[in-house]
């Protein structure tokens, strides 16, 4: 679901130093053979020598040119042993920074230098190139004293401290997550010889590092305490790699915003005035035809090979292999032979941290969290060196829970086997899709959140690079049907994207023109590409780009999923949990069903104040931006208001009777619905939390500001005032004699809606006119309430009085007024930050 990529920075200039050794202090430097005679030598790219007696690891640098500079290497780090905490974000197998470095010999010192490739010059004039290089800093990553040298120019350095440093930034991450101030304890840290190896093309070093808290700043956070046997000693492993650079032959391909790829960017200060300073290329793997003249079913010199972590259990392991293999179909559609993209189990003796292996890892965490795809890429070209997929194991368990909630399958204590388990079938279908999705990121592909809006059958997938919500229908008996919960196989958009990124054009073909044809042909069918920045925010305006949605019409699909939800809730009972499970666990199973509509609601809301647009480039012929049709917006408003209705938010009395307080050993968690009633289940707080999910998006300040503007441009489009009036009406109209749970839910939702309007009225992010309209509406409601006849219903009278008092407080000093914060609902998406996207 997510993507992180780390660019290796290629060599630029050298580090200059005037430091020299004093002649009267010169001591004869031993040869490498003499110095390492009693050590264990590991020969290869950068040889290592292990001094077991002293516990030191020496590194050999084979030689330097006439300017004291070595060849370039890819240098990368990773975290083979993680913390198991999604909140800390330090996962097993996580890839860290990658860069291209070189060594420089300066007298008795050797420096490890990372040049600055963010700023470059394409000029052939050395002076012009030097001017750019000298204008920006580079980084010296390490400094070493020469311990031995040979007449050939090779030197030996003690690299122990370098390899025992916190290169992955674990201590910094712990501090950022407010877990305390940690540092490495040298006495409890050492080189991990079992994972320290040297090969002809790469050198691998792993270290066991123990982090201890500062004595004056003890462990302050719960996250470390949750996952560590002794939070005073957090021990992980960090891995460092030096790799031979890829050889010549890779041809970079230009980035185009609508092609669906991540860009690799740098600044070229030698482009002519008026030219593009920022140069952008797509990130992708190298594929070269065996036969350059081949036009179809072309064999690759080196196919793209991925490996699946053997730590994944069956049947999940096979699902990962099957899902990732879907990509071969896309490569075949791009002119390559079957088997151009391969997926197999990782060899038993292979190290997943070895940069030579593209890996799909199965990672365990204390709480569920994001999966993601990361790459290490060469910044000269955007060529992917290593794809690294991280899949969280708890995702499948959450999918299984969702299916249990929908099906309530354990009638009369029924048990399941793998052959007749519909929950397992759905979870494995999602696992295949997830494996394909995250692998897609490591092929260079970004999310396409507009894909699900393209017409398709339930069995089809438009793109595995979207976030899929399960497709749930009702059978003839009114039972939820999950048989087509997730599409099978690679999607139509995925084939387009791979065609753009990986098709090779032979002869004298105009690559730019041919690539343009690929995209224009796709767009003529109605397929478009819209990604994260447009789809993720509450303020999003695009009517088709959403997360976890379905259907070509968001409002119609919201109405449909509300029907499915109502039906499933009516069937929900203790049959949703296995015999022998504490009955209070029904509440945990209820959560995903009660909030089943949350993301489709968000999709429908984004049609309101929405703008249909494309990533336009001048001359590409794409349609101009257009305000969403007024009738489409009104239809969306009607559907969205249903999510604030007591009919939607009031749980059946039979279900409330079935939910006991939790027994010892089964506490509530962040996955639990909120409660203001202590240990007992709180249906009112649950309804308030669900309502706030709608209100936060519906009354977003940017959306409110757009409604004001679009109504001026398109008079038939909904106005902000009209929307506020509709919300107030939907949450205020109820019959007299409201001594029912439904009436109490509606009163609670009216409170939440009023607070959301207060929030809009004082939100500086909203336009001044949007704030003014919100204040005017609140004043109108206040006037109506204070002028209304007294209520005979005590509950309603108390409720009205409380609202009037709250509005009085607002009107007395709106600049000082603090609206109530939204009530937090349990997380729907995987828990954790989006920082590695």
Automatic annotation (TrEMBL):
Signal sequence extent: 1-18
Record-annotated DUF5117 domain positions: 93-290
Domain EcxA zinc-binding per the UniProt entry, residue ranges: 422-733
Any GO MF annotation of the entry: metallopeptidase activity
Keyword annotations from UniProtKB, A to Z: Signal
CDD domains: ZnMc_MMP_like_2
Pfam families assigned to the protein according to its UniProt record, in alphabetical order: DUF4953, DUF5117
InterPro entries listed in its UniProt record: DUF5117, EcxA_zinc-bd, MetalloPept_cat_dom_sf, Zn_MMP-like_bac
Designated name of the protein: Peptidase
Native source species: Granulicella sibirica
């Amino acid at each position: 679901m997510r993507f992180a990529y780390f660019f290796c920075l290629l060599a630029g200039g050298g580090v200059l130093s005037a430091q020299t050794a004093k002649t009267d202090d010169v001591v004869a430097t031993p040869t490498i053979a003499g110095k390492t005679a009693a050590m264990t030598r590991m020969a290869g790219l950068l040889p290592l020598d292990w001094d077991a007696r002293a516990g030191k690891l020496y590194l050999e640098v084979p030689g330097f040119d006439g300017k004291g500079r070595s060849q370039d290497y890819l240098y990368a780090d990773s975290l083979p042993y993680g913390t198991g905490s999604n909140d800390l974000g330090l996962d097993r197998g996580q890839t860290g920074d990658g860069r291209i470095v070189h060594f420089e010999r300066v007298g008795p010192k050797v420096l490890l230098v990372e040049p600055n490739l963010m700023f470059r010059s394409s000029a052939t004039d050395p002076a012009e190139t030097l001017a750019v290089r000298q204008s920006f800093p580079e980084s010296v990553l390490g400094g070493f004293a020469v311990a031995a040298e040979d007449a050939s120019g090779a030197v030996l350095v003690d690299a122990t401290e370098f390899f025992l440093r916190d290169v992955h930034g674990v201590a910094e991450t712990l501090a950022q997550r407010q877990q305390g101030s940690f540092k490495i304890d040298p006495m409890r840290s050492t080189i991990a010889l079992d994972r320290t190896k040297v090969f002809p093309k790469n050198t691998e070093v792993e270290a066991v590092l123990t982090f201890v808290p500062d004595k004056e700043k003890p462990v302050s956070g719960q996250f470390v305490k949750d996952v560590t046997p002794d939070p005073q000693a957090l021990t992980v492993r960090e891995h460092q790699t030096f790799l031979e650079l890829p050889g010549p032959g890779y041809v970079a391909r230009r980035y185009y915003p609508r092609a669906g790829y991540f860009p690799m960017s740098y600044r070229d200060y030698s482009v002519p005035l008026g030219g593009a300073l920022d140069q952008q290329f797509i990130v992708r793997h190298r594929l070269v035809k065996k036969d350059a003249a081949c036009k179809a079913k072309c064999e690759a010199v080196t196919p793209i090979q991925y490996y699946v972590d053997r730590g994944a259990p069956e049947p999940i392991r096979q699902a990962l292999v099957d899902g990732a293999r879907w990509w071969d179909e896309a490569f075949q559609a791009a002119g390559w032979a079957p088997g151009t993209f391969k997926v197999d189990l990782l060899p038993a003796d292979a190290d997943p941290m070895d940069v030579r292996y593209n890996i799909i890892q199965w990672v365990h965490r204390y709480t569920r969290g994001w999966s993601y795809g990361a790459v290490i890429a060469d910044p000269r070209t955007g060529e992917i060196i290593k794809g690294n997929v991280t899949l969280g194991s708890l995702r499948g368990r959450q999918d299984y829970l969702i299916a249990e909630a929908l099906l309530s399958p354990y009638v009369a204590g029924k048990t399941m086997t793998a052959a007749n388990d519909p929950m397992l079938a759905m979870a494995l279908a999602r696992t295949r899709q997830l494996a394909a999705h995250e692998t897609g990121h490591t092929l260079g592909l970004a999310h396409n959140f507009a894909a699900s809006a393209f017409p398709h059958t339930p069995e089809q997938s438009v793109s595995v690079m979207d976030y899929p919500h399960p497709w749930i229908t009702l059978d003839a008996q009114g039972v939820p049907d999950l048989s087509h919960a997730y599409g099978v196989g690679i999607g139509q958009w995925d084939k387009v994207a791979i065609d753009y990124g990986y098709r090779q054009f032979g002869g004298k073909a105009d690559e730019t023109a041919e690539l343009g044809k690929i995209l224009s042909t796709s767009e003529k069918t109605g397929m478009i590409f819209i990604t994260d920045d447009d789809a993720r925010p509450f303020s999003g305006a695009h009517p088709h780009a959403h997360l976890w949605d379905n259907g070509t019409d968001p409002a119609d699909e919201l109405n449909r999923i509300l029907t499915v939800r109502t039906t499933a809730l009516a069937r929900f009972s203790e049959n949703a949990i296995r015999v022998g499970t504490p009955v209070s666990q029904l509440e945990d199973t209820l959560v995903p069903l009660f909030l089943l509509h949350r993301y489709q609601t968000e999709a429908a809301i984004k049609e309101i104040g929405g703008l249909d647009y494309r990533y336009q480039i001048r001359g590409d012929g794409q349609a101009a931006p257009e305000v969403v049709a007024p009738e489409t917006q009104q239809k969306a408003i009607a559907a969205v208001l249903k999510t604030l209705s007591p009919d939607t938010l009031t749980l059946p009395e039979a279900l409330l009777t079935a939910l006991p307080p939790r027994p010892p050993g089964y506490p509530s968690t962040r996955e639990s619905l909120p409660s203001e009633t202590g240990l007992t289940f709180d249906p009112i707080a649950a309804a308030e939390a669900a309502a706030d999910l709608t209100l936060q998006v519906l009354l977003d300040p940017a959306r409110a500001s757009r409604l004001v503007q679009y109504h001026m441009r398109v008079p038939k489009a909904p106005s902000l005032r009209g929307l506020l009036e509709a919300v107030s009406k939907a949450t205020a109209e109820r019959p007299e004699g409201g001594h029912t749970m439904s009436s109490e839910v509606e009163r609670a939702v009216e409170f939440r809606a009023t607070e959301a309007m207060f929030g809009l009225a004082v939100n500086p992010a909203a336009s001044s006119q949007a704030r003014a309209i919100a204040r005017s509406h609140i004043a109108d409601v206040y006037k109506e309430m204070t002028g209304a006849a007294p209520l005979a219903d005590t509950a309603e009278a108390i409720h009205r009085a409380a609202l009037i008092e709250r509005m009085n407080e607002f009107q007395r000093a709106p600049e000082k007024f603090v609206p109530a914060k939204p009530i937090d609902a349990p997380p729907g998406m995987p828990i954790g930050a989006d920082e590695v996207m």
